[in-house]
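Ticket #4471: structure export looks truncated?
Reporter: QA, pipeline team
Priority: medium

Steps to reproduce: submit the single chain below to the structure queue and open the exported record.
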Amino acid sequence: MKIRYYNDILVEDDEEVSFEETQKLTTYTKAYFRDDEYLEKTELYSNCTLSTVNYYNINNQAYEDVKAFHFHNYQNVKFTVRQNLAKIQGYTWESIFFFSSLGELTNVTEILSNENQKPLMEIHMDKDYKVFELLKYYWEPDDELRYIFEYDGDGRNYTGYDLLYGDSAYLSEVKDYLPDPEFYDNGYHLPQAIANSTIPSV
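Actual output as written to the record:
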């Protein structure tokens, strides 16, 4: 097992810091890697206090087993369990189950990422698996995030943000300039390359 530390919540090479540096940070992440470099677990610290543990469920363990492990090693700490759902033509679907510190399911998120592991789409559900919000992202060719669009549970867009200018973005005004406008037209539409596939069930 290898342990590395990262500034804030992103586990990325350019965010890695030493343990000594974490003591000066408001938020940092402690990441546990297997010997084959697969990320197994992260601990998120805020003001030097452990706030959340994130499990990357690589062995498809039953959630009850993950919860049992969590309660054996942590107390009064909320946690998440991430699990890959499907891979289609370079696109990856994963699910994230969010649990309270008591082990109660609070909400679920499905994420679709591209071949560069950049998230394109998020589906947010409550504890009863009812969709209440969807998010879609547009990344510039240099992998800089430009737009975030929000949709209601029926897939209707109601707002957007332009991160370059720090202002609102109206889908009706920018959609035709995007490389895959149909994808952004409705919250449930999939990228053109996998448009004939279906959203996997969690």
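Status: closed, not a bug. The export was complete when the record was re-opened. Leaving a note from the reviewer for reference: The longest strand covers residues 78-88.
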